[in-house]
Design brief:
The protein has 3 helices and 3 strands; from the N terminus they run H-E-E-E-H-H. 18% of the residues are buried. By secondary structure, it is an alpha+beta fold. The mean pLDDT is 92. The chain is elongated and about 40 Å long. The chain has a 3-stranded antiparallel beta sheet with strand order 1-2-3.
């Protein structure tokens, strides 16, 4: 597993994404699109900054704001990542 056993990883990821998106989109934020459900975080990647979440237009805001991206740095994930998992090795 990529996360420590028993880790509430979806809540951790959702909480971080919500905070970032709410600050960025203010009144245009659709909170339902970033709740702690696996289907809300199906498009992601990893770069040198951390775990990158991608949200399609309409998922977390109106079409006018377009697709959104949130980067969660490794420091914000360190408490939930399984050190033996591939994700922990890639997010350095």
């Amino acid at each position: 597993s990529q996360f420590k056993p028993g880790a509430t990883y979806l809540k951790t990821i959702s909480d971080y994404a919500n905070k970032e998106l709410e600050a960025k989109l203010t009144d245009a934020f659709f909170k339902e699109g970033a709740t702690a459900k696996a289907e809300n975080f199906k498009i992601w990647g990893i770069d040198d900054k951390g775990l990158v979440l991608h949200f399609d237009a309409y998922q977390v805001g109106p079409y006018a704001v377009g697709p959104q991206e949130v980067v969660i740095p490794k420091a914000a994930l360190s408490s939930i990542l399984n050190p033996a998992g591939q994700l922990a090795k890639l997010v350095k």
